[in-house]
Amino acid sequence: MNTHTNKETSQQIAAGPMMSAARVHQFGGVEAIIIEEIARPQPGNGEVLIRVGAAGVGPWDGWIRAGKSALPQPLPLTLGSDLAGIIEAVGPGVSEFAVGDAVFGVTNPRFIGAYADYAIASAGMIAKKPVWLGDVEAASLPVIAVTAWQALFDQAKLVRGQSVLIHGAAGNVGAYAVQFARRAGLEVTATASARDIERVQQLGADRVIDRSQPFEEQVHDVDAVIDLVGGDTQARSFQVLRAGGTLISAVSQPDQEEAKRHGVEAAFFLVNVTTATLTEIAAMLDAGELVTNVGAVLPFADARLAHEMLEGTRPHPSGKIVLKIGA
User: Fold this and answer.
1) Residue ranges for the chain with pLDDT beneath 50
2) Cα(152)–Cα(277) distance, rounded to whole angstroms?
3) Domains of the chain by range and CATH?
4) Which pLDDT does position 70 carry in this prediction?
5) What does the pLDDT read at residue 166?
6) Looking at residue 96, what DSSP letter applies?
7) What is the DSSP letter of 190?
8) pLDDT confidence of residue 327
């Protein structure tokens, strides 16, 4: 018998089952992503282990890979946060989920760990997956849909009959914001590029303004602006708000002096993905009330290619980029 082979096998058994993961050992460009074999993790208190079917790819994954995360990110790490799959194991203190449950959501507050065969997720950041929804579609949703929901209802606190201007309405977050706003009985004005105007109308906007036109000449006294663009668009948005209105940005911190000058509130927020919000969104999906928008679907081995698409160095269809991982 070859003792060398035998020794390797016993080491693997001691280490427990292995899995593939897309990892970063040093921050940098797309080439920093390495797919390697690591030990399969075990869920701790309040956590579950998910056999990953698909993982969403978002701008925050690129920021983490490049070392530009808003949170400390000790290396090495496994990239990815949005995911969908089947619960494989349940940690102590988890009663709302069981082995075999099909779920979707986000891994953890650090937004890492999803680009792998198996991922640990906080039980408070996942929900049961709508029955008819495939893993790829479900993994495309969590961060962007919850961001749209929280911007409208938790941050701007909009209620039926109020008016909202949504910038970047054809983007991944914007498309959900338009649909949620419409469903909640809000009066929806949106900005989008000329080629996307028809699509944004179909999603439910009452009025869509070509983003190359000065929207501030056409919009007045709205209750809230949802800013998904930033920069000059954000700066010009103060003048379209009614006194006491609200500007909410998911992109950058608004100018507080400017807000004071216009007599409005203005805030930047980071998404907080929760079981409660995901469950609410899942109910809408179950009722057929939401249109999802998956762009490129790539095999797990193409994680680098997915990040090239994210950075715009590779062309890709509009919509969310998703890595298909499990069977």
Assistant:
1) 1-14
2) 13
3) 3-141+292-324 (3.90.180.10), 144-268 (3.40.50.720)
4) 84
5) 98
6) S
7) E
8) 66
